[in-house]
Amino acid sequence: MAQKSYDVIIVGSGHSGGMAAKILTERGANVLMLNAGPVLDGTRDRVNKFAYELPYRGFGKPGRLSHVVQANEFNANQWVDEQEVPYTHDPANPYNWVRVRTFGGRSLYWARQSFRLSDYEFKSSEWGDSSENSWPISHADMDPFYRRVEGIFRVSGRNEGNLPQFPDGNLIEPNRQPDSTTIQRVTDLAQKRGWGVSKMRSSGGIGGLAASTNLLIPDALATGKLDIANNAIVREVSIDKATGLANGVHVVDRHSRQERLVKAKIIVLAAGTLESTRIVLNSGIANSSGLVGRYHSDQIYGVQVYASVPEARDGKAPQGLMGGQAFLPRFRNIRKDALSKFAGGYCAMIGSGQGAQAGHFPLYGAELQKKLASYAGSVVNGTIYGERPARYENHVRINKTVSDAWGIPALHIDVKDGPNEFAMAKDAADTFEEMFKTLGWEVFAKHDKFHPPGYSIHEVGTMRMGDNPKKSVLNKWCQSHDIKNLFAVDGSSFVTCGWQNPTITILALSMRASEHIADEIAKKNL
Amino acid sequence: MKRRRFFKSLAVVPAGTVLLAQQPATQPAPTPAAPPAGRGARGGRGGGAPAAPPAAVPDIGITAVGEQVQKFFTATQFATLKRLADHLHPAENGDPSAVECHAPEFLDFLLSVSPAPEQATYRVGLDLLNSKARTQFKKAFADLDAKQVDTIIKPLVVAVPWAWALPKDPGERILYVANRDLRTAHRNSREYAEAGIASGRRQPFPQAFLLPVDPTYKG
Questions:
Q1: Among A158, A201, A308, A369, which is most buried by a count of CB atoms within 10 Å?
Q2: Are B130 and B93 spatial neighbours (Cβ–Cβ below 8 Å)?
Q3: By C-alpha distance, which of B30, B196, B194, B14 is closest to A74?
Q4: What is the pLDDT, as a whole number, of residue B203?
Q5: Of A77, A84, A109, which has the smallest distance from its Cβ to B213's Cβ?
């Protein structure tokens, strides 16, 4: 039987793959989407249980998913099995690679925070970062695509009159509720210091779901030009030796392990940052720069400072004193006359009206319960999303001695924290402490520790874009410098991560790259 | 996949637990077809698949019968843990204690299948508590009265503002870890849930549990 021929193969069904499928099929391309896992069925695959009904009373099976802090015994089966698809790292430098391989990928589970990068991130090298860390594009290049993505994903939030570090967007502005007194005091203090203050921005999606499976792929299917193959694990990209171009992908059937070669004119990798890079490394292609796998970047999460508002203790908070949240977009390294000792920036989130936690006090039993009851509702908490800047030495490579259940060589991840991360975390913790004390609140818990790399699930880079083929893997269209019909439209093209959750930028980049592909097909350049 | 089937499956892919909470607490059990009288499901004499089970097989659950066989702790370590559990999580406000909820027994099972570092935390820590009791009161930790237990554990209870940076001191570490784990094993027990329902003070809600979506294929 003659095989159906495709214009484009998209590897991955998450946000970036879904966006590529939508744009390319709507522009007339015949597309095959390959998804490494099965399709979840909410009625077939889930049941409701009490913790005591589970084998481990909610603790989870010890040792399983040791890298996935987000896992618990209820959701353990949604994550990639670390024995089935292993990766390695130096035990001294742990890396938490959090993966999902069901249809829709991590788009089914993301936290939906939706912040654009600003030119402080696109042109990071101008703001204290390494001279290597600027993108070949700017916010102005991305703005039209951000607008369209924000529309599709129904992003809500507050425009602030175009703060340079927090560009306005195509946002649904919710009704403005008055801030609580504590949040207003935080806001006043921050603004007195020249820092911007806003609210979180979040993708509403439809029905509480902002995934590729409900916002993107249905549009692609409606064109009649999208085929989807599930349980299809891509081993490597196939290259036509005569032309040097990609001509397909080798795919392993997840169930039978039968391998097939599926052909297409254009290959779009959208498997998630490190999976796409793994495919390219295992293919031994597109690496004339020697930079495939290099310049990993993500974010530090964990820094926490807690303060108690004295007049709110023992349930005595007057109405309107506590509650709500202030959001401070990047406020470090935004003035050239006041650059920090660390590169990059962080955003600060300050919540009001919470309680304390048992671990905050050196107490137990009745004494602890009394303390927790007294502090309930009186707590203000500060935490950050901070950039872990891209560095050459933070990289991934193939571990030739370890393979997954399908015989595909595994990734070795060599990413470690450096002085920049520690300095940023300390700055954040000290800043919160100073602010809360200035406001007359009792700081009772503070730490500047943070999770290992990968924890944020915001890993990006490793196939960075750039204008110079010797210093980058992809061009500004997410297109391989070496192989013109090979694209990577997920987070792997990032040059810098920024403090922002990367999804909305990944979506905008995928949309932009996909429109470029469609244009090039129309011009017969691809 | 046919388009209609695809959209049907999308309609049930949930957004976290939000949609899942709307599902019924338990899946309705399928009603098996009545087997032919006196024959296997395939109708063959003594062969083929077994007859379908009756509509409801009574099952009281293995945890309702017999006693758990202790696998991990020594007798002294287990007695120390039990004393600690009784002291930190006593019966109060009508709820059963951690001991009454068999939290120490559950931790014995959990630790028996845990990685070595977690096992060492408990073994070293519980031995240390017992050793302190012997030194200070010439008694096993399990035999201390409440005041004596306080004397030993109070200096070991420290603030842990970052739950992933456990205290390095083995005494401080066991106090934090055991307190945390006993609390979870206590609050997540069937006995604690049933006591809440019986008193009308708590109505536990089930959570969505994702079944293994596919068999895994290894090696």
A1: A201
A2: no
A3: B14
A4: 86
A5: A77
- Cα separation, A307 vs A282, whole angstroms: 50
- Whether A447 and B162 have beta carbons less than 8 Å apart is answered as yes
B residues 4-23 lying closer than 8 A (beta carbon) to A? 6-7, 9-10, 12-16, 18-20, 23
Classify residue A176 by burial, with Cβ atoms within 10 Å: 0-12, 13-18, 19+: exposed
Helix-strand-coil split of chain A, %, nearest 5: 25, 25, 50
The residues in B 41-80 lying below 8 A from A, measured between CB atoms, are: none
Q: pLDDT for A255-306, tens place per residue?
A: 999 999 999 999 999 999 999 999 999 999 999 999 999 999 999 999 999 9
A157-168 per-position pLDDT tens digit = 999 998 999 999
Spatial contact of A396 and A277, defined as CB atoms under 8 Å apart: yes
CB A268 within 8 A of CB A20: yes
What pLDDT shows up at residue B50? Answer: 58
Q: CA–CA separation, A450 vs A502, rounded Å?
A: 19
Q: What is the pLDDT of residue A317?
A: 95
A187-217 pLDDT, tens digit per residue, is 999 999 999 999 999 999 999 899 999 999 9
In chain B, whose CA is at the least distance from the CA of A43?
B12
| CA proximity to A424, closest of A496, A331, A306, A503 | A331
Q: Which residue of B has its CA nearest to A366?
A: B88
SS (H, E, C) A315-368: HCCCCCCCCCEEEECCCCCCCHHHCCCCCCCEEEEEEEEECCCHHHCCCCHHHH
In angstroms, the Cα distances linking B64 to A12, A106, A461, B78, B190 are: 46, 40, 53, 22, 11
Listed residue (A354, A327, A350, A303) closest to A201, CA to CA: A327
- Other C-beta atoms closer than 10 Å to the C-beta of B53 total 9
Could you give the CA distance from residue A124 to residue A137 in angstroms, rounded to a whole number? 12
Q: For B125, list phi and psi in degrees, rounded to 5.
A: -65, -45
Nearest-angstrom CA–CA distance, A26 and A283: 30
Q: Quote the tokens at residue A93.
A: 């430098």
Selected for mutation to probe chain B from A35, A45, A227, A408 (highest B CB count within 10 Å) is A45
pLDDT at B93: 86
Q: A92: Cβ–Cβ under 8 A, 6 or more apart, which residues?
A: none
Closest CA to A463 of A455, A472, A454: A472
Q: Are A317 and A181 in contact (CB under 8 A)?
A: no
- In the beta sheet, which residues pair with residue A347? A385
Neighbouring CB atoms inside 10 A of A355's CB total 16
Pick the closest to residue A203 from A321, A81, A116, A100 (CA basis).
A116
Report residues of chain B scoring pLDDT below 70.
1-54, 215-219
Question: What is the spatial distance between Cα A510 and Cα A23, in angstroms, rounded to a whole number?
Answer: 9
Counting as low any pLDDT under 50, the low residues of chain A are: none
Q: Which of B157, B176, B210 sits opposite A77 (nearest CB)?
A: B210
CA distance readout (Å), B162 to A68, A372, A376, A418, B119: 17, 17, 19, 20, 21
Q: Which amino acid is at A220?
A: A
Candidates B157, B188, B211; nearest CB to A46: B211
Q: Please enumerate in sequence order all residues whose Cβ is within 8 A of that of A241, keeping only pairs 6 or more positions apart, or say none.
A: none
Q: What is the ipTM of this complex?
A: 0.89
Task: State pLDDT tens for residues B186-215.
Answer: 999 999 999 999 998 888 889 999 988 776
Are A445 and B24 inside 8 Å of each other by CB? no
Question: Is B19's CB within 8 Å of A42's CB?
Answer: yes
Q: Which residue has the tokens 């536990």?
A: B204
